[in-house]
């Protein structure tokens, strides 16, 4: 049986405003697990713990959980949700995928979009991509700023655009601090996949008719912008990895490892809230024996 909570989450954390080089962060499995088999065993243990922790979260109705998954294309975000969160009660969990904003959404502040998706007390929200696209994809493709019609922004002036990114980092930090102060546990995971592994996953999609639907020719164009994406992620992660909403860079070349690591961290952090089931009035408990007797006599 795999040992519970064998991962040291601190090793994955991005330090706030400290230098971050994704090229120096590992993409392959660490030493916590010896094999894929052990990884599956560890995942099973933590998924069981996560299921119990989610029931307690739902029953206590005092906190909520927000999980954010970011990463390059084919980093494994979808399968992480399936394998890590597949066992939790669907009544207490919602998954949201952030595609390109609609014309209506572009007329509002970029943080107005996720507000409707935030978890109520007792609930879990999972963001498959998120509002961080506004400081990553939009940074790589600054032309996406044009339809936002932001006042005071000069898209031809690099300094003006850089001020926008710094402003958005600050707005994100303040937004997440408000959520945390209101009882939301925020866990943000960057699935760190290598360029070589992404290539293999794209080829797998192209060679398997059952996975054709996953392939998008536009992904090849985005792949050529890999250095720009890494720069955008590095800047965003280090600027928004706060004490109340840390970023974890998870090696993702080996899916069995990334799933086990994320499940372990989520379960451990939920358990760290030390939630309890609601108390039932002692006078009411005293009547339970009589209630049970009524049911037996039906």
UniProtKB/TrEMBL annotation:
Q: Which organism is it from?
A: Aureliella helgolandensis
Under NCBIfam families, the record lists: PPK2_rel_1
Q: Where is the Polyphosphate kinase-2-related domain?
A: 35-272
Which SUPFAM superfamilies has this protein been placed in? Answer: P-loop containing nucleoside triphosphate hydrolases
Query: Which residue positions does the secretion signal occupy?
Result: none
Quote the protein name from its UniProt record.
Polyphosphate kinase 2 (PPK2)
Record InterPro entries: P-loop_NTPase, Polyphosphate_phosphotransfera, PPK2-rel_1, PPK2-related
Question: What does UniProt list as this organism's lineage?
Answer: Bacteria, Pseudomonadati, Planctomycetota, Planctomycetia, Pirellulales
Q: Name one GO molecular function term.
A: polyphosphate kinase activity
| Entry similarity comment | Belongs to the polyphosphate kinase 2 (PPK2) family. Class I subfamily.
Q: Which UniProt keywords apply?
A: Kinase, Transferase
Q: Which GO BP terms sit in this record?
A: polyphosphate metabolic process
Keyword Transferase included in the entry's annotation:
yes
């Amino acid at each position: 049986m795999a040992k519970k909570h064998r991962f040291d989450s601190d090793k994955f954390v991005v330090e706030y405003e400290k230098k971050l080089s994704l090229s120096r962060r590992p993409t392959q499995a660490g030493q916590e697990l010896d094999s894929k088999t052990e990884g599956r065993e560890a995942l099973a243990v933590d998924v069981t713990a996560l299921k119990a922790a989610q029931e307690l979260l739902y029953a206590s109705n005092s906190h909520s959980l927000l999980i954010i998954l970011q990463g390059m294309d084919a980093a494994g975000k979808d399968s992480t949700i399936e394998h890590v969160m597949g066992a939790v009660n669907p009544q207490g969990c919602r998954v949201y995928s952030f595609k390109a904003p609609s014309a209506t959404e572009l007329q509002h502040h970029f943080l107005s979009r996720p507000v409707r998706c935030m978890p109520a007390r007792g609930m879990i929200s999972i963001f498959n991509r998120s509002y961080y696209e506004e400081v990553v994809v939009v940074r790589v493709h600054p032309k996406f700023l044009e339809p936002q019609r932001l006042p005071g922004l000069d898209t031809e002036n690099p300094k003006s655009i850089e001020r926008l990114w710094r402003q958005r980092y600050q707005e994100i930090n303040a937004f997440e601090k408000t959520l945390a102060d209101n009882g939301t546990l925020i866990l943000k995971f960057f699935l760190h996949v290598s360029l070589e592994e992404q290539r293999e996953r794209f080829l797998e999609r192209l060679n398997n008719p059952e996975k054709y639907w996953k392939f998008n020719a536009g992904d090849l164009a985005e792949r050529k912008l890999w250095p720009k994406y890494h720069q955008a992620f590095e800047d965003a992660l280090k600027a928004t990895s706060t004490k109340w909403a840390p970023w974890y860079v998870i090696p993702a070349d080996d899916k069995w490892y990334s799933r086990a690591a994320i499940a372990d961290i989520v379960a451990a952090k939920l358990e760290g809230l030390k939630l309890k089931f609601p108390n039932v009035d002692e006078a009411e408990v005293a009547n339970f024996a009589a209630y049970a007797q009524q049911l037996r006599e039906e």
